[in-house]
Amino acid sequence: MEMLVFILASAMVLGGAVGVIVRANPVHAALSLVLTLFGVAVHFVALGAHFLAAVQVIVYAGAIFVLFLFVIMLLGVDTADDLSIEPFPIQRPLAGVVGLGLAGLVIAAIVRARDRIAEGTPLESNGDSNIKQLADNLFQDWVFAFEFTSILLIVAVAGTVLLSRKTKKAGDE
User: Fold this and answer.
1) CA-derived radius of gyration, the chain
2) What is the CATH topology of the domain spanning 1-75?
3) Residue 78 or 53, more confident
4) Phi/psi class of residue 48: alpha, beta or left (left: φ > 0; alpha: ψ in -120 to 50)?
5) What's the Cα-to-Cα distance from 19 to each of 23, 39, 131, rounded to whole Å?
6) Which of 4, 45, 75, 144 has minimal Cβ neighbours within 10 Å of its Cβ?
7) Which residues of the chain are in CATH 1.20.120.1200 domains?
């Protein structure tokens, strides 16, 4: 039974990933991404990580998918833009400065997290111990992965914006 669940969930993940790549319509590609995310959630359930499966469905298949759809719909993929004209000339240098600032913040968070890592925190008797350990684990031990994931999501949204824009042809106005 476990092998069947693994094979079906893996087929969902691979089928969704292929669908993201080959679909020309961005909405259909986003729906294929949801199939991939649900397949990963099934893998989490099969491994007994029910919390991660719930987070996978709620955060990624729910919120991130809605964010992608919002960006796709907001852009209006039926309009064409002239990409050679820069609407805000200060935009690229400002993006570089913001990127360097974010990189500095990530480096500072990593250095600070290394100084604060405790050697094996014992379980507490109150009900908040799991939440505290999860927060300590996420924001101290794995702060780089957490920040990298947030940067990756920003890049994905920017990529969605760039991929869904159409260039103007010479005769279009």
Assistant:
1) 21
2) Four Helix Bundle (Hemerythrin (Met), subunit A) (1.20.120)
3) 53
4) left
5) 6, 13, 37
6) 4
7) 1-75
